[in-house]
Specification:
This is Peptidase C39 domain-containing protein. By secondary structure, this protein is α+β, with helices and mostly antiparallel strands. It has one domain: Cathepsin B, Chain A (Alpha-Beta Complex), CATH 3.90.70. Helices cover 21% and strands 29% of the residues.
Length: 136
């Protein structure tokens, strides 16, 4: 399985949607830019509506809200996860990743370019705060 790696420091939302839709980063970035969504906009990693809008444009439904993370075993088979939560000037920010369960095997597709492997199973290292179910 090939994981799309983000090409911009704040491109994790675009890369996560590309990983769900099976598109390249450049293809997804072109779609996002045409919709007025740009990686340079910090809102992409502090607001959920942008990733929801990108997925909806491809006909992919998501859960209406964000569900607090309880455990890895309680996650749906496909979900957007928010990890690396922090605040800047009183505003919440996070890093988008994709949780996927294939044939009973759980993994996280993390688009960060500095990782030795973008398919992660080091679940204890990630601290998800909440998730959005992706209904595909």
């Amino acid at each position: 399985m090939k994981v799309v790696v983000q090409e911009e420091i704040s491109g994790c939302g675009i890369a996560s949607v590309a990983n769900i839709l099976g598109k390249s980063y450049s293809e997804m970035k072109a779609v996002a830019n045409a919709m007025g969504i740009h990686a340079e906009d910090k809102s992409l990693w502090s607001d959920t509506r942008y990733v929801r809008k990108l997925l909806a444009s491809a006909g992919v439904e998501t859960s209406a809200g964000e569900t607090p993370f309880e455990s890895w075993s309680k996650l749906p088979d496909l979900a957007l996860l928010s990890i690396k939560h922090h605040q800047e000037e009183g505003r919440n920010f996070w890093h988008w990743v994709v949780f996927k369960r294939l044939e009973g095997r759980a993994m996280v597709l993390d688009s960060a370019s500095y990782l030795p492997s973008n398919i992660r199973t080091d679940f204890d290292e990630m601290q998800p705060k909440w998730f959005i179910e992706v209904k595909k």
